[in-house]
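Reviewers of the previous submission asked for a worked example of the structure-prediction workflow described in the proposal, so we include one complete record here. The input consisted solely of the amino acid sequence. No template or homolog information was supplied to the procedure at any stage.
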Amino acid sequence: MLDPLLRRWIDPPLDRAGAWLAARGASAHAVTVTGLAVGLVAVALLAHERYGMALAAIALNRLLDGLDGAVARHTRTSAYGGYLDIFCDMVFYAAVPLGFALARPENAVWAALLLASFVCTCASFLGRALLAAGRGEADTGRRGRKSFFHAAGLVEGTETILAFVLFCLLPDLFPWLAGLVAALCFWTAVARVIEAHSVDPES
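From that input alone, the workflow returned the following structure tokens.
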């Protein structure tokens, strides 16, 4: 929901940073994989309840996630680059709840619920992109230049990261926060399915 607004603020500085990195030989794929590696470090930090350091790792992961596309636009974009980017994003999103489950046993059920809701939002997101590709439907571009169709939703990347920030700042409230975020994610998935049905001329 907040992604289009955020893109207006962050795209210009990311583009400049991407141009700087590309001029020095940086590879977009290397930036993507490095970002995932940094994000996975957060799992170990969360498991040991080092929430401040985990938050720093999460923030760096998101910075690198924004930079890989900027680097690609100043070197060479590819379908595989878009695939690698979304794959690494989904792995990272799944890793953070796992870290909280490892930190405290009482978090496990809520982390599992949150992961289930992420599976639903991911399926609705990627399925909508597949539907759009089959119909030749172009992305609106409101969420920046993307390699494939990005479906709108109540919970998107920005809202997910805000949730992760709250989890780290208020770890004692993780069960309540995770339950709330999971409910919003399930709502997002259902809304996307309904929207996909409404725009399909064959439905």
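The domain at 3-198 is CATH 1.20.120.1760 (Four Helix Bundle (Hemerythrin (Met), subunit A)). We consider this example representative of the routine output the project will generate in years two and three.
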